[in-house]
Amino acid sequence: MPQNTTQPVYRTELTPVSFLRRSAYVLPDKVAVIHGDRRYTHRQLEERVNRLASHLRAAGLQKHDRVAFLCPNIPPMLEAHFGVPAAGGILVSINTRLSSAEIEYILNHSGATFLFVDAELEPLVDPIDTSNLQVIRIDDTGAPDDPYEAYLAAGSPDPVESWLENEEEPISMNYTSGTTGQPKGVLYTYRGAYLNALGEIIETGMTFDSVYLWTLPMFHCNGWCFTWAVTAVGATHVCLRQVDAGQIWDLIKNEGVTHYNGAPTVQVMLVNHPKAERLERPVTVTIAASPPSPTLLGQLKELNFRPIHVYGLTETYGPHTICEWHEEWDELPIEEQARLNARQGQAYLIADLVRVVDDDMKNVPRDAQTIGEVVMRGNNLMKGYFEQPEATAQAFRGGWFHSGDLGVWHPDGYIELRDRKKDIIISGGENISTIEVEQVVASHPSVLECAVIAIPDEKWGERPKAFVTLKENQTATETEIIDFCRERLAHFKCPVAVEFCNLPKTSTGKVQKYVLREKEWAGRGKLIN
After folding, report:
1. Those residues with Cβ within 8 angstroms of residue 303's Cβ, 6 or more apart along the chain or in another chain
2. What topology is assigned to 12-191 in CATH?
3. What pTM does this model have?
4. What are the residues whose beta carbons fall under 8 Å from the beta carbon of 111, sequence distance 6 or more?
5. Are 45 and 34 in contact (CB under 8 A)?
6. Could you tell me if 392 and 385 are in contact, meaning their C-beta atoms sit under 8 angstroms apart?
7. Is residue 494 exposed (0-12), middle (13-18) or buried (19+ Cβ within 10 Å)?
8. By three-state DSSP, how is residue 366 classified?
9. How many Cβ atoms are within 10 Å of 164's Cβ, its own excluded?
């Protein structure tokens, strides 16, 4: 293959596509992808990616054209993460839980020219005018009559010539949840995706013999860049169309799963499932989306999971901080271990250290008490919001990315979240962290999961209310939950009401607190988003 002789010998542009090229070269016959009865080696995965890229080019894709994928965690979704950038396009991974109107907004705002859609999700696209799109259906059968497989068959198995000139070009666009308005398109670069993938490998300890289970949606922050990271070390992807706790337990045991990721809600389902039992070998589970309670972390360790607690946002390619384990913690009681591990820690090695600052951008004291905003810098920060320069400038004011999360700084340098700015409860002039209250409620032996929000109060302005889901065959009353909290918290922090229900959640497992607030504050003027 001819080489670019104009580029310095000491530098090549960083691109995650190179991860697949290397693994297919070094480990061609090793299994790269498992999906039910289907198995693809790294050589076969590379060929499928080449065919996707070459057909996109043949179908008229121009450099930086947006290519949208709307499908679950199946091989085509993984192949898109290599094939679209290999072709020179920008990948737009769409949340599979969105409405038709939300999907239409993303397609229009991103200016997508191609849409690949899973057959089960096709009804979401039917109401949308797709006359300006090339639409390819994915049946997820692997059979020759599958439209996606036919699309690949029409492509070339040989790699296309790279159009990448600068590693800071956009590789993908991921849309925020849009809970405070229309979603924003977050631009990731080739450089950021490459470096964050390496960060995931190092922080989670993946090697060539790792087996990664796709419980985390690939559409969410490009699967926290594990789409690229797993392939970078020649490890194996195990695809999963939907999160099912029983199936996850089966795959962990039958496929030799070593790693998976997910929100606390996924972990709660697993530790409380009838198939739950202590594993013969440890399995690394990386947890984010919302802070896990010390109770949940303790339960995972008892089952021989190795929980890694990370924290980040769509704007940081997924995880940005990690609670690095200290070996001296091994000697502590498991409850204390879990409490320390429930903190958000410090930045990945590829980023600058995270700060907690006041309104003047000055560091707050490291006293574990003073609340400030968490701000970040580094190689896994977005390039910006697509076609929204004012929103980008606001997010990057003062030379740091403003997370909108409130936290404290501990004496050991670790940070710990206290709340989103919009979630903090101000009661009689006192700030109450909903996270602190949630962790106490979650430690009740009958509680499966909970969420705490502010409700209006004539005297104090706001007071906490807990929404609780109980474990199967367990009972508890409102009075019991409140008394349990009053034994463990200052009384002004305790819930004044408890409602038992199933919690509303996003597709990535985050509790939709705005849905709960909307009901409680209807007509009262409280910001609910």
Report:
1. 271, 276, 277, 278, 279
2. Rossmann fold (3.40.50)
3. 0.85
4. 66
5. no
6. yes
7. buried
8. coil
9. 17
Please tell me the distance from the alpha carbon of residue 480 to that of residue 476, in angstroms, as a whole number: 6
pLDDT score of 1: 46
What is the Cα Rg of the chain in Å? 23
CA–CA separation, 418 and 406 (whole Å): 5
What is the phi/psi pair of residue 202, to 5°? -70, -45
Please, is 122 exposed, middle or buried when counting C-beta atoms within 10 Å of its C-beta (0-12, 13-18, 19+)? middle
Which stretches of 241-280 are assigned E, i.e. beta strand?
A: 259-262
Q: Could you give the CA distance from residue 451 to residue 217 in angstroms, rounded to a whole number?
A: 23
- Asked if the model's pLDDT at residue 429 lies above 80, the reply is no
pLDDT tens digits, 448-474: 999 999 998 877 878 999 999 999 999
Helix (H) or strand (E) holding 407: strand 401-409
Please name the amino acid found at residue 345: G
- Taking the C-alpha atoms of residue 314 and residue 384, their distance in angstroms, rounded to an integer, is 11
Count CB-CB contacts under 10 A for residue 128.
17
Q: Is residue 223 pLDDT above 90, yes or no?
A: yes
Residue among 460, 449, 424 at smallest CA distance from 505: 449
Strands of 9-109 (E only): list them: 31-35, 38-41, 66-70, 90-93
452, containing H or E segment: strand 447-457
Ordered DSSP codes for 289-356 = SSPPPHHHHHHHHHTTEEEEEEEEEGGGTEEEEE----GGGGGS-HHHHHHHHTS-BEE-TTBPPPEE
Extents of the domains making up the chain: 12-191, 423-529
Report which secondary-structure segment, H or E, holds 105.
helix 100-110
Q: Strand runs (DSSP E) across 81-239, as ranges? A: 90-93, 112-118, 134-138, 170-175, 185-189, 211-213, 236-238
Domains 12-191 and 423-529 share a fold: no
| Range list of β-strands (E), 240-290 | 259-262, 283-287
Cα torsion 98, 108, 385, 266 to 10°: value is 10
Residue 162 CA to its chain's centroid (Å): 29
> Contact, 95 vs 219, CB < 8 A?
yes
For the 423-529 domain, the top CATH level (class) is alpha beta
Distance of CA 64 to the CA centre of its chain: 24
Share of the chain above pLDDT 70, in %: 96
